[in-house]
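Notes on consecutive records. When two proteins share a document, each keeps its own sequence and its own token line. Never mix them. Below: protein one.
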Amino acid sequence: MPEQTTGPRPTLEAVAARAGVSRATASRVVNGGAGVRLPLVEKVRRAVDELGYVPNHAARTLVTRRNGAVAVIIAEPEFRIFSDPFFEQQVRGISRELTVHDAQLVLLWVEGPGDHDRIARYLGGGHVDGALAFSLHSDDALPAVIDRTRIPVVYGGRPAPGTSPTVPFVDCDNRGGAREAVRHLVELGRRNIAHISGPVDQTSALDRLHGYRDVLIDADPTLLSPGDFTEESGARAMAELLDRRPDLDAVFVANDLMASGALLTLRERGVRVPEDVAVVGFDDMASVVRRTSPSLTTVHQDIEDMGRLMVKLLMRLLDGTGPVIPASVITPTSLVLRDSA
């Protein structure tokens, strides 16, 4: 138990004296330095606990040249971040892995280009050691803004063409997962298979659209309808497709939220799922799938693990424990069969 005291807060010198080591040795242990024998490490840690010593952050920064903080930049408006469970799952994975590395998460979101100067000033101000950025759009200047700050960065999602090739990223096999989903619908005997896409200025949506077209090379353009990854856009796109192509018998939807909206529209129109129209989503987000009726067949990606992998790549950049540019990671996907298809 820490000693109870009303005097000055314990110093590093007091920790060193209690442990019977030099101040330099105590400093290396407290600040995570290497080169200290395990018995001495244990003595210092015991002294820290007994005295209730709290390391001085500013002093630690001088020793380690690290702030112990990472910026998580989401290129979406606030309402999307707090309404889409995808972001919740990815940030959860990031937060849990940062905890393993004793680092703090600083969340930044981007409502529009007007926020770029604020982001650049913060990143360039020495407040964080590195950044994780995701949900980027192809016409967004944010990657260039981050690049100018010269801090280490890892992207969530395959960057758009033209983005610096030296930046590692973590993504799932969007195209392969889409192909598997559409092949399943073909194998069910469906012939007029529609697709509700996400915003095609994002590589994840574009890759899923390409996966759909890989299987249905001559797909009729009237079977395509765009959405924006929200439930409302899925409902709207489904209504447009039914009005335009009442003969459609299946739909592959680019994410679970839009698939949930599509199912609502089908129910309102009196269309039976899967008897009349089979539906497949993408993401396998439990919080969305639980409330779909019938239960949603969808493509699974491990969103939380992707967040963890982003942190691991960033830490390799910060620690210099791997190649100067760590290899990017593409995680596998799998089709989860339920009642909707």
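Protein two starts on the next line and is unrelated to protein one.
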Amino acid sequence: MRPRLYIDLSKIRANAQRMFELLSKHGIELVAVTKVTLGDPNIARVLREAGVRIIGESRIQNVERLISNGVTGPFMMLRIPQLSEIDRIVSLCDYVLVSELDVVEKIEQLCREKRRRVKLIYMVDVGDLREGVWYETAVEEIVEAAKLCDWAELCGVGTNLGCYGGVLPSEENMRMLLNIRDNIERLTKKSFPIVSGGNTSALKLVEEERLPQGVNQFRVGEAIYLGTDVTNNREISWLERDAFILEAEVIELKTKPSVPVGETGFDAFGRKPNFVDKGWRLRAILALGEQDTVPSHLKPLDEKAVVIHASSDHTIVDISDVDRSIRVGDTMRFRLSYAALLRAMTCPHVEKVYV
């Protein structure tokens, strides 16, 4: 049996509906991000049922998968484009996040050739150090970008927080983005109606009613699928947190020492494991490894089970204190972090089961 990822579409739909209702109440459009699901059309359909208008994707191949399975746009390309893929992006996507003048120029050229309108959101780096023009020079660069656009419509600004530097969204950096938008409008005499300032990590500002008025678009994935907010290190109480459950079979049960015997170096992934001497422990080896998911990010549904370590194909779990009896051939189940879900969804060795 392959490891199985159980996907509860009803819980994803419920989370998306709750998210849609919360954001709509505050005048914020929800862009539901499907990149962690490998552009899964079954999931995209329930997002649409929940009221979501725009599907956000980071890979053009995933957009093509959605379209080939009957899911229609509008689609937003989240990852700033490679020049080599802009032709496909312009053909299939309705919104594109950009951060380079050369890219804007190329998109404008292709839009003119294809007689197609595409909306652009220029990304601003307000401190997290991932994509976007640095906030201190953002106005100047985005004004230049606006001069390049005719068929392509530069319709707003955006930012990303939490994904690289772990910088938390705040009233200050959201106001910074709004001020940049206001200055661009003043200089260009044009309207930039979209301020795409939020992701899962910014939900806390909405919940606490601290989000500055004018930020009107959130791009959300993690909270919809897992009910968590890893950047703020919290579970979101009003969302379902078990829409995805990973199951793997036990292939060995042995009682062994908790510390290796002999001189140790690095493991197969170049890591230096640290072991705590707890004496002899009952260990289950699962038919699951680093190739399938991120084992260290798995959360056992069996209380008192502890994931110890993993290699490419094996995950070792300490089950000494687990209340139920586990035998070879039984299965164990886990909740996942965002990183663990991402790898499981993209791994062909993990079977996807919809419930």
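For the record: The longest strand covers residues 244-257.
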